[in-house]
Automatic annotation (TrEMBL):
This is Isonitrile hydratase. It comes from Pandoraea pneumonica. GO terms for molecular function: cyclohexyl-isocyanide hydratase activity. It comes from the Bacteria. The keyword Lyase applies. Its EC number is 4.2.1.103. The gene is inhA_2. Residues 1-22 form the signal peptide. Keywords: Lyase, Signal.
Amino acid sequence: MPSLLSLLFAFVALISPSAVFAGPETSGSDVSGTAQQGLRDALAKRPHSPVIAVIALNDGTETTDFLVPYAVLKRAGIGTVQAVAVEAGEVTLMPALRIVPDTTLAAFDAQHPHGADIVIVPAMHTDDDPRVLRWLQQQAAHGAMIVGICSGARVLSQAGLLNGRRFTGHWYDRGDLRKANPTASYVPNVRYLHDDGVVTTTGVSASIPVSLALVEGIAGRDRALEVARWLGANDWSARHVSAGFELNARRLWTIASNAIAIWRHETLAIPAVDGIDDTSLALTADAWSRTWRTTVVATSTATSGRVRMASGLMLVTTPPVPSAARPLTLAPKRNAMTQFVQSLADIEQRYGPAERDIVSLAMEYVPAPN
């Protein structure tokens, strides 16, 4: 998610008549219908039991971009899925939560000297970390499919992996990505897009459809349908409507006023126990954090300060502090998408429709067709 400072710069650009976008654009109308099949075809040529690395930068990796693909692919039971951090130690997710990764880049390389089959790249706090860029370039050279989720496309761009390719990305990034990659073609109106071993997606909420598309391409449609029912997702096609995702004066005012009015901020505490669903937790924490009015933390009574999520990944928690935080409880039998949609409704009820709008904008969320 863009910082307050970057949003203020965006406001200046918004009212400036000189803003321009460089680089060609390809119409999405002739691509969206074939994007899902294109990814499926590319995956059909890869191992049916792949080695999949979901990479994380320790000091800042996007919450849903990271947790959803990891949890979905683990749920599907395909291949080897590892959470790979740049270095040892906890990973701070943004805008909320902390986790303990499975391994490090160095340890992964020692275990898999021929590289991964698929590498998933979330948005990162720093998109030009040289260790990440070097590793991605090496993985691409080994033949890995590189999947940039949301603003993970900025990391791929820094690694030179968008050059000469068609790509999509979070609506906020498209101008920067087009200017940085004049030989590439930006494609609107597609949720995800594969081109020559590189996959890019639109905003945060695209993590679910692209993860299901990966499951379908690796393990078949029946497995994807099974995982989709668990998630509560009824569509994972590449269809998307790019129009309407933009900053305007009203949205910028909502964000800026919320960020500045710190006396209105509150802390929300999600009680966490072993087996908590990664996907529901990620989407809920992400949505509430993007109101610019809340800090979301995971709490538990575990003496270790850690609980094991449904995927097997370790979540770092804090002790409950009832007097300092409002509880935000996940319904135990509610699937991830129902939980997310309910979170949007709860945000609107608590803070108003303008807040729900900026959350949907930040996560580039469009309700799936019935």
